[in-house]
């Protein structure tokens, strides 16, 4: 009995001491800044930590910390509503309209150094109500990565049209290698929509324009790749994502953004691959997608001045250079483009693709449309939906959401 | 009645009243800590949720800036041809198939195991009980992680199946296969989306076409169902085992004297006497399966193509950016669970609470 | 079988007996075969996980179904796990589960006793309200509980993990059922001795309740140790307060590339180990606890 009580007492002591220790007190002489973001590849985490360390070294009164988190949307929403607001946080271009509608962000564009230097298209992406809300962190553009070794062995040239692409996939696909690895989702397939001359919404994003003959042609082409076994999803190719499929030699072609460059250098330095523009559509039109993220500051931020100072370093010439060098994403400042291309000539293709790339980001609540569209596209390539039904469904869900957004 | 006895009675009434008072105070003292926690962290949030479900709160703005929008959330969820209703009806379908697959299987399996383990001649009974029960003590996260690995395309399950079939088995991408199990059966008989009659594809009932309603759980959901059955059968077996051991042996002896063979004994003696336990196991099974969340969160996050989105998981995903819709969905789930609980109470009568 | 060279009738009996014994042997063999197969199915996933957690990542990917490493024993997974925040999460899990077990023991038995034995106005309502909460799926409270915790300033704090889970209808119900089974004369005798309710409860009743309390302790510990939604609601944005469950569920999303199976399997082993040790030490109680509710309920 005594032993039991001794055990119980011990347990109690442990529990209480843990409880006491848990809300640990930090010595705070400096202003502590938290940068909340999602974690990309190891290369990305490493590069951003480097930028943050450089910033900290230059400061006497501010100390910033990068916190990459999984399940980012949940964590960010909890933080915003729960009052534990991070000083700076990633805002994807998808979420930007929603955040503006819900008045989450503090527009600080006028306090940025050398604003005119950001690409106009990127500024537009993060502007609303005639204000630039937040600084574009960088941008990424989709292109086609091909396994050079496989192509050379088969005597093939990089494809420039859909027909050539299909022919190459046919020539290179084997039991263990997929001709093309791509997951069906709207933010990939749309590149083919644009190349076919199609669109997702009308110009002012008030109505859907996805159910068109052009998009139908694009889906027919893509669907034929999957149904003929020339294209595979990452799961079917046994890879985590396109970059891994390319690195492991499981795919002859993948379609990724420039983030794949840092990953390949880091994880598969010996794999020979080449990045080319996405093949042109039936009419010769080119299409690609550009994605961007900005550094958001909350409306009720605790340290707005320090945060903006920090951001000005992150998107300033030095910070941005360290970041883009380490990851392969593209600098959002025009003045850095030249030096970037000189240093990474193989990445020029992304900048060139940006010229015909379409921006992402539509309306508040559009995530629901993207989710629905992704599901329809997955059903389509599994033979559980027809092209007509899929496009009709996306169009109808999209129109409902857009109507509510514009109410 | 004489005077002294009246005073005595009054005195005893007073003491009785004082005692009752004391009792009541003690009662409140004993129950208040538990009640306080439950009121603050369950009742108040429930009321909050109910209120939120009638607003347009998205979850990002401060909640006091939300506007009333009457029954909009419920209308979009139940009565209008709206994407929210499509999502809800699909989640309902996924959850129902999940429950329909898991509950009967785990009940039958655990009963079978209990009957086998209960046999008199059996040795190492303790060992088997331990082995069967062990999965129950681990968490959904751990088991989910392990299953994610086992059911990998290049994982042990597929390797095992290839080995058993001598190579004729074409590996299934278990966790990324959106094809419905019943659809797959249809396919064997030549019935696919392309060959299905138009009434099947075009008649929509509550947000899904008949063809979609008939999908069955997707292959990915099937893997998660296997996990659920695998985890819970051990606990349920113990419940059946305890009930079996309560059955007096004389009943079997009497049946045996009457010439009943083992199967007849099982049918005539065991099953009827196990009926209350079976009801219990089935209803807690239903209540549990309709709440399934952890496994989905860990294993599939609702993928592929939303075929593993359950109602609870839909509540979770919509809580980001559509919090009021999430609250309305949560209430529908609450109503469903309440329904099962009431059935349980009705069927089990006084034996339960 | 002894050979009987007697009349024909005896012979047939022998044959009958032989066939029934053969039948019995087949049945026994089938029974053991089935149980063994099933036992393997239950246990092998864990054995595979433990075995593979001691392999290198390429080895795991190449030969998952081998129970021994082909590239030498590797503790790389465990090393990575320990340089992650797993030790911290382990402490959080222990702290949370132990604290919650204690609060459950106290609060649940107090409330259970009141509901079982003390007559007070509103008892029926209190009981119905309590039992009613068993119908509330945890996920239903996702958003509103978050708001309540936020109002109380408990988001991302240790107390936010503890306070909402300190008691539960299930435990109260379990204890109520138990206290109702104690013969009332024990209390009457104590009450004649002038023993008040509080003293009676702690001195007379609780010692009798050790079996029920054991069951309750096991349930509470297991429940809090394995809980995902509670920590997910409360501390997802404070990595320092993640529990093992939350850490294991989320750490996967922290690497951009392929799933790091060495980390995940080692993490799964670490997450299960404390529970498994407790299980094997207190095995008998676990089995009893599992059936306790069903039989008493």
Contiguous helical run count of chain C: 15
Task: State the secondary-structure class of chain C.
Answer: mainly alpha
Number of helices of chain B: 15
Q: Write the CATH homologous superfamily of the largest domain in chain C.
A: MetI-like
Helix content of chain B: over 70%
Shape type of chain B: globular
N-end to C-end Cα span of chain B: 46 Å
CATH class of the largest domain in chain C: Mainly Alpha
Task: Report the C-alpha radius of gyration of chain B, rounded.
Answer: 27 Å
Mean pLDDT of chain B: 89
Number of domains of chain C: 2
Unreliable parts of chain B: none
What is the helical fraction of chain C, as a range of percent?
over 70%
Report the portion of residues of chain B in β strands: under 5%
- Helices and strands of chain C, in order, run as HHHHHHHHHHHHHHH
The first-to-last residue Cα distance of chain C is 49 Å
CATH architecture of the largest domain in chain B: Orthogonal Bundle
What features would you describe in this structure?
The complex is a heterotrimer of chains A (407), B (353) and C (297). With 407 residues, chain A is of the alpha/beta class. Chain A is built from 17 helices and 13 strands. Chain A folds into two domains: 31-140 and 290-359, 3-Layer(aba) Sandwich (D-Maltodextrin-Binding Protein, domain 2), CATH 3.40.190.10; 155-288 and 361-405, Periplasmic binding protein-like II (D-Maltodextrin-Binding Protein, domain 2), CATH 3.40.190.10. In chain A, 46% of the residues lie in helices and 16% in strands. Chain A starts with a helix and ends with a helix. By secondary structure, chain B is mostly helical. In chain B, strand 1 (204-205) and strand 2 form a beta hairpin. Chain B folds into two domains: 3-52; 80-180 and 216-351, MetI-like fold, CATH 1.10.3720. In chain B, strands 1-2 form a two-stranded antiparallel sheet. In chain C, helix 4 (86-117) crosses helix 8 (169-180). The radius of gyration of chain C is 27 Å and the shape is flat. At the B-C interface, helix 1, helix 3, helix 4, helix 5 and helix 6 of B face helix 1, helix 4, helix 5, helix 6 and helix 8 of C.
């Amino acid at each position: 009995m005594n032993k039991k009580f001794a055990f119980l007492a011990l347990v109690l002591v442990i529990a209480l001491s843990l409880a006491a220790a848990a809300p640990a007190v930090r010595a705070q002489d400096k202003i502590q800044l938290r940068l909340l973001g999602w974690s990309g590849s190891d290369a990305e985490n490493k590069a951003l930590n480097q930028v943050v360390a450089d910033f900290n070294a230059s400061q006497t009164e501010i100390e910033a910390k990068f916190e990459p988190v999984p399940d980012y949307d949940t964590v960010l929403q909890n933080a915003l509503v729960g009052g534990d607001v991070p000083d700076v946080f990633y805002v994807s271009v998808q979420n930007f309209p929603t955040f503006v509608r819900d008045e989450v962000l503090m527009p600080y564009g006028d306090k940025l150094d050398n604003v005119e230097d950001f690409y106009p298209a990127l500024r537009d992406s993060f502007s609303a109500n005639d204000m630039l809300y937040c600084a574009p962190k960088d941008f990424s553009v989709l292109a086609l990565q091909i396994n050079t070794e496989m192509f050379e062995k088969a005597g093939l040239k990089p494809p420039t049209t859909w027909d050539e692409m299909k022919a190459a996939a046919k020539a290179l696909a084997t039991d263990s290698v997929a001709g093309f690895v791509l997951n069906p989702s709207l933010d990939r397939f749309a590149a083919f929509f644009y190349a076919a001359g199609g669109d997702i919404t009308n110009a002012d994003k008030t109505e859907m324009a996805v159910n068109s003959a052009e998009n139908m042609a694009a889906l027919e082409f893509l669907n034929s790749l999957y149904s003929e076994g020339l294209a595979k999803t990452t799961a079917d190719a046994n890879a985590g994502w396109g970059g891994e499929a390319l690195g492991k030699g499981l795919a002859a072609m993948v379609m990724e953004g420039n983030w794949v460059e840092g990953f390949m250098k880091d994880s598969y330095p010996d794999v020979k691959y080449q990045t080319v523009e996405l093949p042109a559509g039936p009419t010769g039109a080119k299409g690609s997608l550009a994605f961007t993220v900005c550094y958001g500051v909350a409306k009720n931020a605790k340290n707005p001045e320090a945060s903006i100072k920090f951001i000005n370093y992150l998107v300033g010439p030095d910070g941005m250079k360290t970041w883009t060098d380490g990851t392969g994403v593209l600098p959002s400042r025009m003045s850095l483009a030249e030096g970037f291309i000189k240093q990474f000539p193989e990445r020029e293709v992304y900048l060139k693709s940006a010229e015909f790339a379409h921006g992402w980001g539509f309306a508040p609540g559009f995530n629901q449309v993207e989710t629905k569209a992704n599901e329809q596209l997955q059903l389509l390539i599994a033979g559980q939906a027809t092209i007509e039904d899929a496009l009709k469904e996306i169009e109808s869900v999209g129109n409902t959401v857009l109507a509510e957004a514009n109410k | 009645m004489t005077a002294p006895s009246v005073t005595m009675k009054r005195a005893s009434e007073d003491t009785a009243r004082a005692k009752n008072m004391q009792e009541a105070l003690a009662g409140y003292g004993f129950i208040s800590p538990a009640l306080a926690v439950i009121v603050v962290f369950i009742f108040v949030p429930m009321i909050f949720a109910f209120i939120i479900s009638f607003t347009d709160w998205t979850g990002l703005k401060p909640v006091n800036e939300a506007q009333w929008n009457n029954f909009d959330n419920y209308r979009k969820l139940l009565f209008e041809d709206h994407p929210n209703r499509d999502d809800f009806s699909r989640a309902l379908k996924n959850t129902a198939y999940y429950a329909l697959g898991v509950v009967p299987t785990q009940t039958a399996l655990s009963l079978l195991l209990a009957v086998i383990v209960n046999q008199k001649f059996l040795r190492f009974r303790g060992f088997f009980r331990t082995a069967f029960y062990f999965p129950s003590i681990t968490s959904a996260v751990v088991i989910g992680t392990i299953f994610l690995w086992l059911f990998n395309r290049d994982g042990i399950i597929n390797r095992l199946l290839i080995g058993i079939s001598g190579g004729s088995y074409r590996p299934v991408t278990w966790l990324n296969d959106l094809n419905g199990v019943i659809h797959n059966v249809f396919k064997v008989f030549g019935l696919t989306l392309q060959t299905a009659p138009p009434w099947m594809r075009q008649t929509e009932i509550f947000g899904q076409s008949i063809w979609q309603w008939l999908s069955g759980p997707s292959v990915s959901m099937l893997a998660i169902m296997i996990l659920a059955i695998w985890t819970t059968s051990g606990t349920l077996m113990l419940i059946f085992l305890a009930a079996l051991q309560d059955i007096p042996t004389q009943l079997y002896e009497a049946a045996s004297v009457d010439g009943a063979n083992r199967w007849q004994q099982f049918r005539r003696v065991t099953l009827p006497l196990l009926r209350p336990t079976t009801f219990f196991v089935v209803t807690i099974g239903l209540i549990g399966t309709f709440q399934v969340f952890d496994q989905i969160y860990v294993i599939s996050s609702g993928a592929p193509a939303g075929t593993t989105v359950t109602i609870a998981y839909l509540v979770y995903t919509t809580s980001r950016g559509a919090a009021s819709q999430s609250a309305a969905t949560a209430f529908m789930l609450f109503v469903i669970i309440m329904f099962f609980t009431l059935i349980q109470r009705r069927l089990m009568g006084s034996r339960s609470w | 079988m002894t050979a009987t060279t007697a009349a024909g009738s005896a012979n047939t009996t022998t044959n009958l007996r032989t066939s029934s014994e053969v039948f019995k042997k087949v049945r026994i063999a089938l029974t053991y075969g089935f149980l063994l197969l099933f036992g393997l199915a239950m246990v092998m996933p864990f054995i595979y996980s433990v075995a593979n957690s001691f392999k290198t990542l390429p080895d795991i990917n190449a030969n998952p179904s081998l129970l021994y490493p082909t590239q030498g024993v590797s503790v790389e997974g465990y090393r990575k796990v320990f340089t992650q925040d797993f030790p911290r999460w382990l402490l959080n899990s222990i702290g949370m589960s132990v604290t919650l077990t204690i609060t459950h023991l106290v609060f649940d038995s107090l409330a259970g006793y009141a509901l079982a034995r003390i007559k007070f106005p509103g008892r029926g309502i209190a009981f119905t309200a309590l039992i009613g909460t068993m119908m509330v799926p945890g996920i239903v409270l996702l958003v509103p509980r978050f708001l309540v915790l936020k109002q109380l300033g408990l988001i991302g704090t240790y107390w936010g993990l503890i306070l909402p889970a300190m008691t539960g209808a299930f435990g109260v119900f379990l204890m109520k059922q138990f206290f109702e089974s104690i013969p009332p004369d024990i209390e009457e005798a104590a009450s004649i001795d002038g023993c008040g309710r509080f003293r009676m409860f702690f001195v007379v009743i609780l010692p009798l309740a050790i079996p029920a309390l054991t069951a309750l302790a096991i349930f509470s510990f297991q429940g809090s140790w394995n809980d995902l939604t509670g920590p997910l609601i409360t501390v997802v944005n404070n990595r320092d307060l993640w529990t093992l469950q939350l850490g294991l569920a989320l750490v996967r999303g922290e690497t951009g590339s392929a799933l790091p199976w060495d980390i995940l399997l080692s993490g799964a082993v670490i997450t299960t180990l404390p529970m498994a040790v407790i299980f094997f030490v207190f095995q008998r109680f676990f089995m009893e606890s599992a059936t306790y509710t069903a039989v008493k309920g």
